[in-house]
Amino acid sequence: MKNSGLFIEFVRDAFNTKEFIPLHEPRFTGNEKKYVLETIDSTFVSSVGAFVDQFEEMIKTVSDTKKGVALVNGTAALQVALRLAGVNKGDEVITQALTFVATANAINYNQASPVFLDVDLDTMGLSPSSVEAFLDEHAELREDGCYNKKTGNRISACVPMHTFGFPVHMDELLKVCSKWNVPIVEDAAESIGSKYKNKPTGSFGKLSVFSFNGNKIVTAGGGGAIVTNDIQLGDFAKYLTTTAKKPHKFEYFHDEVGYNYRMPNLNASLICAQLEQLDDFIAKKRALANRYDEFFKEEAINFRTELPDTYANYWLMCVQLNNLEERNQFLEETNGKGIMTRPIWKLMYKLPMYSHCFRDDQKNAEFLEDRIVNIPSSVIN
Ligand SMILES: *Cc1c(COP(=O)(O)O)cnc(C)c1O
What we know:
CATH topology of the largest domain: Aspartate Aminotransferase, domain 2
Bound molecules: pyridoxal-5'-phosphate
Number of helices: 12
Helix content: 25-40%
Radius of gyration: 21 Å
CATH class of the largest domain: Alpha Beta
Number of strands: 16
Largest sheet: 4 strands, mixed
Oligomer: single chain
């Protein structure tokens, strides 16, 4: 950007402050205090309580699914969702290299290997044509699923991630994954409230996950959820993440190695108050996105906006600069002036623990890695 001074001025004006401006700040202007205090007064602060039940109803509604399970964070949700989708030790799981590290870690926790395929330039999320090319070349359908005929490993899931709340091309991805019998687990951690052809992200996968970390649009402090239309699978997710305990009046009997991944009621009370405001938050973020869009058009800079047929929550807004040098200069100048900006993630195969994993040419991911910068995106009035 030729003149980041103008941008800095614009952001200071939009957020109406001379102080440090973070990338994304939580906002507690609804029933947060009321519900948290109610929870403390009730003494039900831990993993059983009315707000956990209420949250599980709310997340079902927001994602238009049949079952929601409250969990301790998004990473744990993804770990368990993958296990329930059928991911086993030694399997391969298709995902994108342009993502937050939690996506790859959750695959790794299941002792499976990520297969990193390229993203689309327009969505910044997993490219259906990259998936199709990979499967056409490497896959073979057997009675019990899809196998990589070169490695002999099962390809047991595909994890698209809706980058910054922009939905991936779901129709095309569903088509190729169903052809090859590979279940989709959506990493919708960043895209709560986003829609693809009028259907919420999180409603497309066999299972899908959300995150309610402090930097997401709505937060539980820390928290996550699994949603699914398969009620049996959803019930099993609840069971497995509640130490796999068989219901009984007083006996402790567990028939599997489960997890203690439950969301405490204290956190659920916060997220319930936050979810009540989700539509309002998204409306305000979309208004800010519009202002950014107009500003950057004047500057001839590519501010990323939603694609036709999609509705984005604009969790983290971003610009696409012309090259790495321009990106670095913009990061230096803005951060130096107390405006927080951050580059998009380093690609997963550039991290030591994933450097050995399979990847395709990654042309688009590498292009975006050098150019995409997140800019302040908090909800403002
Ligand atoms: C935030 C995030 C997660 C993980 O969520 P936590 O709740 O922080 O564990 C997973 N995947 C993506 C893409 C995320 O942005």
